[in-house]
Amino acid sequence: MLRNSSVSSSLPVAAAAAKVLEANWTGTATVPSRGLYPHQWSWDSAFIAIGLRHISALRARRELETLLAAQWGDGRVPHIVFNPGVPAGAYFPGPAFWRSSTAGATAGAPGGAETSGIVQPPVHALAAWLVHRADPVGSWRAGFLPRIYPRLLAWHRYLREERDLGGHGLAASLHPWEPGMDNSPCWDAPLARVIPAPADSFRRADLSHGAGADRPTDLDYGRYVALATAYRDRGYADTPSLKSPAHPFAVEDPGSNALFAASEHALAEIALALGADPQPHLRRAARITRALAGRLWSAADGLFLVRDLRADALVPQLSAAGLLPLAVPGLQPALAAALARTATGPHFAAGSGLIPSYDLTSPAFSPTRYWRGPAWFNVNWLLERGLRLHGYADRADALRAAAVRTAYATGFAEYADPHTGDPRGSRDFSWTAALTLDLLTPPDDREPPGGPRS
């Protein structure tokens, strides 16, 4: 049964979305898709929990706690938690490649689970707060916030202390998979320094589940493998040393850091609910927001850019990641206004009504190749939230309607052609279904006002 009456008012869409999440549920977590992604992914689970809270807050809490149970001793939340019941060849790179329990032992990788060694954007605290607010009585009864808050603190501490490689308060990404936008044109120049792994040294499993024209190229994949191999072989060490020289790929990504700031605001809410001091989180959120503006803002482009730390220069590529600081509470109004204009201008205003992942006017744009142009539903969910947060309700309403319409019409596709809305990638994709459930909920009902012990 659908718990939230506002969701059930759009019953056919909501029921179809709930069916996807039920089919992809393993008993402890939700896989992104049964074919291409048969394990648990970090930021997927956060977005999935945000939608699951509307049909089962219990499952949403379990989704996050299952993920955080595989947290490393140094605080990192790995981007994949592997299911030992999945055949070894079903996904590459799998547990035999990452060797987390041995190669990551110095960094505190768990002995009871195999994981990857890299991370994904820190949207988890935001998800945890929204999940708690969906069912505060059940959450308090289960001890959810007291149990999860220390793990979220450790996760943010890791990003703050181990990943601030630029020294200005932003978390660095050490692999193109870490910001979540795997083959964005933003990575082309930084990746060009990386010598790819030999083509015969690995076998891609992703091409068995999707069209090669839609996926990253073999050259890019070879570079991904080379970077992950080097990071693994240095024991997943983040700080350069004599034994671990400077990272060949290191960037400050505006999308990841926007979610870092937004999740610090969520941690402030969690701290307040627990009777702790929220001010340290608010100060950290403000510092990240200032660093975003000081390090990554491009007034000429009207959005935030990636900074290549090896070159200490902004990458002149316009990605939807540069719009994601709209989701940060406290972003300067002038910057929010500029982002709102850019989101509806020629670089991002596509025919389907969804915002593409990359600049429509660039020669590098592709409407179908993974993160080089297609519209992704998690990005559009974040931008809908950000537009609404900063007072652009009409634009948010239009984006909400386009996202729900396209998600349902495509069978909850992984991503969509931004011009036509045609489905691309996997179907029955979990975060698409989950975030559709959230968007079906009237905005005022998504985050009910706090009450006692909220």
From TrEMBL:
Domain Mannosylglycerate hydrolase MGH1-like glycoside hydrolase: 37-432
SUPFAM superfamilies: Six-hairpin glycosidases (SSF48208)
Listed GO biological process terms: oligosaccharide metabolic process; protein N-linked glycosylation
Keywords: Glycosidase, Hydrolase
Pfam families linked to this entry: MGH1-like_GH (PF22422)
One Gene Ontology molecular-function label: Glc3Man9GlcNAc2 oligosaccharide glucosidase activity
Record-stated family: Belongs to the glycosyl hydrolase 63 family.
Name of the protein described by the UniProt record: Mannosylglycerate hydrolase MGH1-like glycoside hydrolase domain-containing protein
Organism: Streptomyces coryli
